[in-house]
Amino acid sequence: MGQAAKAPPIEGTTLFDGEAAANGYALNAMCYSFNEAACRQAFLADEEAYCARFGLTPAQRKAVADRDVLGMIAAGGNIYYLAKLAGIFGLNVQDVGALQTGKSLAEFKQFLLDQGQKVHHG
Amino acid sequence: MAEIVGAYFTSHVPAIGGAIHRGDQQTPYWKPFFDGFTRVHEWLAEIKPDVAVVFNNDHGLNFFLDCLPTFAVGAAHEYHNADEGWGLPLYKPFAGHPALSWHIIEQLVDDEFDPATCQAMKVDHALSIPFELAWPGVSAWPVRIVPIAINTVQHPLPSARRALALGRSVHRALASWGGAERVVVIGTGGLSHQLDGARAGFMNPGYDRFCLDHLASDPDALTHDSIHEIVRLAGTQGVEILNWIAARGALGPSAREVHRNYHVPISNTAAATLLLDPA
């Protein structure tokens, strides 16, 4: 058994391991394709057809349709590839952080700034 | 014999590239981070490197899950950036040093590492941003590079102990290289941050301080935690500390801290910059 399997889980955290990578392959492959501008345009032109081309699982397709980042991660998505999908919608890592934590964008940004306040002003 | 003239470490948050592009370096949000580079520029002018060995991690530009090496050494004449898919500016190419790359590969395999070797390798913001920070505004980079990519994407990741040993093997290679190059070692990424999951936005200044306090004097102290524990302490992307640990190994047995800057947050990340001299 691998070390990760024995270690207690980390709250709010999914390790992208072999099992996740196997489950998430189609979704991550689609997102990897978005390195090409033509692929980003093809997705925007016909999302359904583009997802079908990569053979997304029903759970992956639903998570993409719902713009449900936690759902994408549960379906094997890796954040480095998902970021390329988020980029199509003009979302950056603060937007994605807010979506995942149930905070508004302003609240999430403040949450980040507050951690700095603790460092810089004790 | 090549001279190892120092080690430079910094975060590679993509948003830094945007700030540079917009000229935001002196705005209140960015100033505390960019002001940490005045000393970097002076130091680089003093040590005058002409080669950089750069430990970094690919974010889905060059490598996909179809074939994901744990360690990959670039052995190309040239390295190009490309569209990463989400609106980053396109960065300048890098000249390689394939003869030194192959010498490093020989040493690594002699030391029982089994790296992938890449005669073509795209490099992403993990390489470009630390260079944009170190040599702002230059038309071409003043150093040739040997990029070494460490898998920080798909678990199982190499252990911190393994990353340090990898770096030490690279040090042996540099020590036996017959050329007169002046080599700077670079580690990019980190420090604590987590982009994904319900814990997104997590940072851990206490752990970052531990890493910064021990990297020069006792890098082995950073290798006692398992990868799982490093994820718990530093966040899912905080494991990029592996690049720093490997670079520290490549610097050599002893080191002296020259400069440190630490600022929270830059984007979702606890950002740090560190300079070490060989001692």
CATH superfamily of chain B: LigB-like
Q: What is the strand content of chain B? A: 15-25%
Our measurement of the CA-to-CA distance between the termini of chain A, rounded to an integer number of angstroms, reads 42 Å
Q: How many extended strands of chain A?
A: 0
What is the tally of helical segments of chain B?
9
The stretches of 5 or more residues of chain B where confidence is low (pLDDT under 50) are none
Q: Sketch the major β-sheet of chain A.
A: none
How many domains, in number, for the residues of chain B? Answer: 1
Oligomer status: heterodimer
Average pLDDT over all residues of chain A? 93
Measure the end-to-end span of chain B: 17 Å
Largest sheet of chain B: 8 strands, mixed
Describe what you observe in this structure.
The complex is a heterodimer of chains A (122) and B (279). Chain A has helices at 3-6, 18-23, 25-33, 37-45, 47-53, 58-65, 69-74, 79-88, 93-101, 105-120. Chain A is an all-alpha fold and 122 residues long. Chain A folds into 2 domains: 15-91, Protocatechuate 4,5-dioxygenase, Chain A (Orthogonal Bundle); 92-122, no CATH class. The longest helix of chain A has 16 residues, at 105-120. Chain A is globular. With 279 residues, chain B is an alpha/beta fold. Chain B has a single domain (3-278), classed as LigB-like (Protocatechuate 4,5-dioxygenase, Chain B). Helix content of chain B is 33%, strand content 22%. Chain B has helices at residues 14-22, 31-34, 38-47, 98-110, 125-134, 160-175, 205-215, 227-234, 241-251, and strands spanning 3-10, 51-56, 71-74, 78-79, 94-95, 116-118, 144-150, 182-188, 255-266, 269-278. In chain B, strands 6-3-7-2-8-1-10-9 form an 8-stranded mixed sheet, with helices on both faces. Chain B has a two-stranded antiparallel ribbon with strand order 4-5. In chain B, helix 1 packs across helix 5 and helix 6 (160-175) packs parallel to helix 9. Chain B starts with a strand and ends with a strand. The interface between A and B is large, with 53 and 42 residues.
